């Protein structure tokens, strides 16, 4: 029972004030300290009064606050004859327990104010009589609040019970014992806390006993289906995905207020940052989260008004490094730009890393700049090493590079009836230039294919670039005995 002390105090104070006003209004006088009430109405009594007796209509006990009792005083003389019209004054030893009104002849009314006992005195002159009046609230009813309860399975409701007398005044110092008509539907603790345990209706009863009298009050508790109270998402917060496209299966476990799992509970899923992760499907007890970008995202599972969350992180972990091209040959003086890509385990580019570093195993053959530009210096070979520092360690790659002993240019003189020199060597990507130095008309024509096909001319030049390694033979269509060859390395 909550806050009954304050409420009862206010009720009792009101009863005391009403009782005092009752006494004053009926002609009695009240002392300032609430003590015994005043002087007789109509004088101090007659000299012929020898005895006084006090009678009550029904017993000497009042069982409810504000209950009233009629008192009658009878005056008799020395011959035991009733003295009519004797002046009689009434007082109470404790008006805070029993208050009295003014006399009307030999009668007055006593009203219960609080539990306890007070002595009522009737006085006529020097003669007096007393009557002990007891106020003892008798338990008449028990009221349970709230008066009706509806709960989902697992939920709780605190009940309170108040015992009152026949006039509805609360009794103090008594407690209720609680019971349930069906613990399979609802239970009640010793303190009146009701918990719904199964679908249906149960009656919760509060029983109170005071002075041997027992009364009960009850409330019907209706229990509906389970209601979600807690949603737990697994895996819990802090899980990390290391590659874009990685997935994680999430599950929601929904429980009611009693901690029981709710089978087939409806669950809706959402994620606060779609740029970091996506989820599908959006409803059901499970969903799949897919990493779409780096960062952190909160996934929420909702069932009714209950929610559960999980914080997931996406942090790409560099898994491999690739330098392109992985091998090549250059002629002296030629250059080659290297490109480097760093990817996660699913071959997605890892962004935000510092620039890689490049080193050459032999700078006398090949040099490499900070941006990966390789320059051939002299014939031979060297390895270009590439290193990329990542939060998870350093990734390394290597490129095999060769510098051809052959240049990128060669010259041939077209003399009268001869090519000089008859054979030349160049590197892949090189260019050969023929220059007519004689007087006769000549051509430079491929022996097979169409790689070389100059016009017939006696002066001028003709050039061809060779992008493929191999041997290319040629002759003069005017003078077929004139032959030559280009070997591309």
Describe this structure as you would to a colleague.
- The protein is mainly beta and 489 residues long.
- The chain has 5 domains: 4-135, Immunoglobulins (Immunoglobulin-like, Sandwich), CATH 2.60.40.10; 141-226, Immunoglobulin-like; 230-313, Immunoglobulin-like (Sandwich); 320-404, Sandwich (Immunoglobulin-like); 409-488, Immunoglobulin-like (Sandwich).
- The protein is 4% helix and 50% strand.
- It is built from 1 helix and 42 strands.
- The protein is rod-shaped.
- Mean pLDDT is 88; it is low at 1-47.
Find the count of extended strands (DSSP E, 2+ residues): 42
- How large, in whole angstroms, is the Cα Rg? 57 Å
Q: Specify the biggest β-sheet.
A: 4 strands, antiparallel
What is the CATH C level class of the largest domain, in words?
Answer: Mainly Beta
CATH architecture of the largest domain: Sandwich
End-to-end CA span = 103 Å
Read across the widest sheet, the strand sequence of neighbours is: 1-3-6-5
Taken from the alpha-carbon principal axes, the silhouette is rod-shaped
Give me the CATH fold name of the largest domain. Immunoglobulin-like
User: Please, how many domains?
Assistant: 5
Low-confidence stretches: 1-47
Q: What proportion of the residues form beta strands (DSSP E)?
A: over 45%
Mean pLDDT: 88
The count of helical stretches stands at: 1
Tell me roughly what share of residues is in helical segments: under 10%
């Amino acid at each position: 029972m909550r806050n009954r002390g304050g409420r009862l105090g206010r009720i009792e104070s009101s009863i005391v004030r009403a009782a005092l006003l009752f006494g004053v209004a009926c002609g009695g006088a009240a002392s300032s300290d609430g003590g015994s009430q005043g002087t007789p109405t109509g004088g101090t009594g007659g000299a012929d009064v020898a005895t006084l007796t006090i009678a009550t209509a029904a017993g000497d006990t009042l069982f409810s606050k504000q209950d009233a009792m009629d008192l009658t005083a009878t005056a008799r003389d020395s011959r035991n004859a009733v003295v009519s019209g004797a002046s009689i004054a009434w007082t109470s030893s404790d008006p805070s327990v029993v208050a009295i009104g003014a006399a009307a002849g030999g009668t007055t009314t006593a009203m219960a104010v609080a539990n306890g006992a007070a002595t009522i005195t009737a006085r006529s002159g020097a003669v007096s009589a007393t009557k002990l009046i007891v106020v003892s609230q008798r338990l008449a009813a028990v009221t349970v609040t709230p008066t009706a309860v509806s709960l989902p399975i697992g939920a709780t409701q605190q009940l309170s019970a108040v015992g009152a007398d026949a006039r509805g005044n609360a009794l103090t110092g008594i407690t209720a014992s609680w019971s349930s008509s069906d613990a399979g539907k609802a239970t009640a603790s010793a303190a009146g806390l009701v918990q719904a345990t199964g679908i249906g209706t149960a009656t919760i009863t509060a029983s109170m006993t005071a002075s041997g009298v027992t009364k009960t009050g009850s409330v019907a508790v209706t229990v509906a289906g389970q209601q979600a109270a807690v949603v737990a998402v697994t895996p819990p917060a802090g899980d990390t995905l290391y590659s874009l496209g990685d997935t994680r299966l999430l599950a929601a476990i929904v429980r009611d207020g009693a901690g029981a799992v709710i089978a087939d509970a409806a669950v809706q899923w959402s994620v606060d940052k779609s740029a970091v992760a996506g989820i599908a499907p959006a409803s059901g007890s499970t969903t799949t989260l897919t990493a779409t970008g780096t960062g952190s995202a909160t996934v929420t599972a909702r069932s009714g008004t209950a929610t559960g969350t999980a914080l997931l992180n996406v942090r790409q972990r560099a898994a491999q490094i690739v330098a392109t091209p992985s091998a090549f040959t250059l002629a002296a003086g030629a250059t080659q730009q290297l490109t480097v890509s760093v990817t996660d385990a699913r071959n997605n580019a890892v962004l935000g890393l510092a620039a890689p570093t490049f080193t050459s195993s032999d700078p006398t053959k090949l040099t490499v700049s900070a941006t990966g530009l390789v320059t051939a210096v002299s014939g031979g070979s060297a390895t270009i090493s590439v290193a990329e520092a990542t939060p998870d360690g350093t990734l390394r790659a290597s490129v095999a590079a060769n510098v051809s002993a052959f240049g990128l240019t060669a010259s041939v003189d077209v003399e009268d009836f001869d090519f000089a020199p008859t054979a030349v060597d160049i590197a892949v990507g090189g260019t050969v230039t023929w220059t007519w130095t004689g007087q006769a008309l000549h051509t430079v024509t491929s022996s097979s294919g169409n790689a070389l096909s100059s016009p017939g001319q006696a002066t001028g030049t003709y050039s061809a670039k060779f992008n493929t390694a191999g041997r290319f033979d040629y002759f003069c269509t005017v003078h077929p005995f004139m032959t030559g060859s280009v070997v591309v390395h």
